[in-house]
Design goal:
By secondary structure, this protein is an alpha/beta fold. Helices cover 42% and strands 18% of the residues. It folds into three domains: 67 residues, Orthogonal Bundle (Arc Repressor Mutant, subunit A), CATH 1.10.10; 148 residues, ATPase, nucleotide binding domain (Nucleotidyltransferase, domain 5), CATH 3.30.420; 163 residues, 2-Layer Sandwich (Nucleotidyltransferase, domain 5). The chain has 15 helices and 14 strands. The chain has a five-stranded mixed beta sheet with strand order 5-4-3-6-9, sandwiched between helices. It has a five-stranded mixed beta sheet with strand order 12-11-10-13-14, with helices on both faces. Bound molecules: zinc ion. The site of zinc ion (ZN) has 8 residues, from helix 8.
Length: 399
Amino acid sequence: MPSNQASAGHLLRLIRTGQATTRGELQTATGLSRSTIGQRLDQLFGAGWLRHTAGGASTGGRPSARLEFDAAHAVVIAVDLETRHARAGVLDLDGRLLAEHTGPLEIAEGPEPVLDRVAGWFPALLDEAGADASRVCGIGLSVPGPVDWATGLIVQPPIMPGWDGHPVPATMAEAYARHVGAAGAPIPVLVDNDANLMAFAEQRRHYPDCSAFVLVKISTGIGAGVVVDGEPYRGIDGGAGDIGHIRLHDASDALCMCGSYGCLAAVASGRAIAARLAAAGIPTASGSDVRAHLTAGVPDAVRLAREAGQRIGEVLVTVVTVLNPGVLVLAGDLAGTPFLTGVRELLYQRAMPRTTAHLDVVTSRLGDLAGLAGAAAMVVEHLYAPDRADARLAALAAR
Ligand SMILES: [Zn+2]
């Protein structure tokens, strides 16, 4: 077995995934000697990353004691940016929400003022969560636009004017340092597209055994996130799932935020439905107003949402034919019964029976918290992945 497959970081992964949770099981899984396993576990305990499971502590360090990741040894700050508001939260490493705040903002003001505003919420959130700055291991940011995953740069976002190519991780880290105050290296910041992160969170939490999973976010815009074998599938340039700008053949007069005509988002997003309701004399300024009308059961809103669901369904026929997913989740501000009905009608009518025979089409179970949960999970998976974990342990040991 290559040595890098049996480092402390790799043992941590075996423990976190439940593949091996005692010293004996770790020995069997890795082929390492009992003493080597003991040394590596000492590193992990020394960093505060491991604990014995409840009840297991009484047996001390005896071989039968079960080990688990200590999800309370650090916290993550997660930020979910929308076009007109943002949500920020402090979560433990298992994704448990410890404190949360939602406030208005205009994403069109651009990255510097928006990220500074959000970072201004962090000190009170950390207080409420009972966590001081030394326990923050990273920040995860969910944005309503395409992201180049490797660099965290936003790439040609249709509904985020002023953000194209901006180094968001560096700006977020600087804003964090200004408001929370942190010495040493900049705080790690990871950025991804909102639909990707919502899909990641929903799949992990509620459909862990689903190997092909799709989530469609319906809000101001429309986007999809894909999770294959438990990993987000982003494509070559982070563009996978950006279905909102697929051109419909019969909507050539509908102008989209991206500047093109006839995009799915131009006829079926919250923004598009708001414009139609307003034209029909029902005061509606935004996707949030559409949501309020749907909650109140306003008949025109319900009808338009169901029709929009059918338009989205037209595009999803291709998506499910390519991916053959087991679960398709509708999420975002507007994902409710009318959209679900419209999507189901179109999908089951048009898609080949073989691709929908075992497909569940459902609404989100995480709801408004999916973005925060996904952003936090992204940070934890990154920081505690074997190689990264080993590098961090080495840095701790060198202090
Ligand atoms: Zn478009």
